[in-house]
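Researcher: I'd like a structural prediction for the single chain below. Treat it as a standalone chain; there are no partners to consider.
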Amino acid sequence: MRINILLKRCFATFFLWVMLSQALSAQENPDSVKSALDSLLTLKIVGEQFVSTASTYAQSVEEAPTSATIITAEDIKLYGYNSLTDVLRTVRGFYASYDRQYESLGIRGFNRPTDYNNRVLLMIDGHRLNIYDGAPIGNDLALNMSNFEKIEIIRGPGSALYGQNAMFAVINLITKKTNNFLKPEVKLSYGSFDSKTFSINYGGNISGDLSLSINSSFYDSKGENLYFPEFDKPSTNYGVAENLDFENYYGFNGLLKYKNLQLSILSTYRKKGNPTGSFYSKFNTFSETEERKKFIEAKYTQSLSFDKHLTLRAFYDTYYQDGTYHIYVLFIDDVGTNQNDFETAGGEAQFIWDVLNNNRITMGIEYRHDLMKKFRLFMPNVYELDIEEPDKTLSIYIQDEYQYSENLSFYAGLRRDDYFNGEFSFNPRFSINYAPHNNHILKLIYGTAYRTPNIYERNYEIPLLFKKNNYLQAEKITTIDFIWEYDISKIFKNVFSFYHYDMTDLIDQYYNPSEFNYQFRNIGKAKATGIELGGQARVSENFRGYASYSYQYAQDGNNKQLTNSPENIFKSGCYYKFENLFSTALEFQYETERLTVKNTRTNSFFYSTLFISSEFDFYGIKFSLLIKNLFDNSIYYPAGLQNEQISFQQPGRTFLFNLTYGFN
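Model: Treating it as a single chain, here is the predicted structure.
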């Protein structure tokens, strides 16, 4: 009944907006609209890079109503990025963490040690990968980067277009769709800890209007034997976790395109050992997690006329997680399991209309039905928790881009998400873009975003250890951005950004000392103020580089510094090609200390990578070598409340040797 009422409201809103737009457009000369469509919606600065994620249609990075970064296929190749984490740790204002099971992403000073990227929205070709809640940015993504045309990174809140999770950033992986590469390419890799990778990529036109793109990867690693001083006693193997850092995965991503119809498929599997003894598991005892993700999506795009464009898509996703671990706390000493099972299906219709020669409206409606949403915790002879929460979501959104003049534009966007359980969220976004003269553009951006508590946060409980909370509310963030992008010359491009955000109803684990247990709570607020400086230089085809500096001061509601939040981050990198012999890329990162949940601090650290690649073919084979943590520095990241450890030491110097063969 509620969904029917919402549908009627959605279509009524859509109809009224269309009628108003039609009345305004009737005053325009149709010929002038057609001729001005591509010219007046372009500011004076027109960049070489285009982004589609900011507004769901292609714009230059300078025009987009946000702070955007584009990582191209060329960047991925030249710097030897092997995973999405490798890419993101080089991006201005981003930083990484790793708890020896999952890699997580910090943005603008915010990265709770246990959030698993659930405040970042990750997509492949516009399809969300936050199926459970978090975004897979490490080996849980199970895909190599070489089959992506580019990676679009949109900072700030994106819920006005994309709904929940889009609080700090929206990241979109864009698959190669045309004949950017026609030959099949096979890559074999061998590296530290007996890690082995096999991947194959293929893309191009099969015949006529039919094109195919395939990305498939297989990975296996024994991992390290790890020492944790917190467990250094005879009963726990003197703090050494043996043969528990193992990992293997496989992934397949395919894209089939025929004229205006596009079919996308993803299937991934990952198994990872847990060497840390987290979540009350017995240290140095077998513990592992298995994950399976799949989706299929059909998308149809059609230009109804020169000024009207329609996109329809339908999708089906599944996610299954199984964890096995030995519980060893209080009176419990047995093998336990946990399971997360999700199936969701839905569709979206989007309509883009250039109502006037300087006015573009984007509107859409999305319906998502969680067919299965289960969480199960099982401890033999002790405790069993079995929760099922199917859900439905209906969303409508509208964005208006108005080009007042060739150097001044306005954006306004609104989205409402209604949930079957009665919850809803309303999120606006506004932007003013002003180009005072060529090579300079100023942007002022305001937006909000949200995240609802997931099934685990709502229902997790263990007698005497973890208490359920029936009153969790959705998190919300409000962000203001000021951005100045400018080109010193054709060689040097620079950006300055100042931002401030406030987050309310932050969901986090809380330890209650009076009851000696943990609980998920809306612990209060978080806020941050920061600046970001970035520059890129492309001196020639053989020489380029980048540098960035970020200052971020993030605090909780009591004005205390947030945990896992470095104040200062400096990054730089350069690439140089030595004739047609070989090329080298060197990258540096420096971060100041981070506060841990145990109120201690990690050391500041310096991290560097070196990538060397042959520039000649040896019977179709190319060689490359990637060395991470080049100077073998000691790097520690804060642990979470689910861990006995204060922090986790990261791998020292590691290497990865690659052979790439391209078929003729």
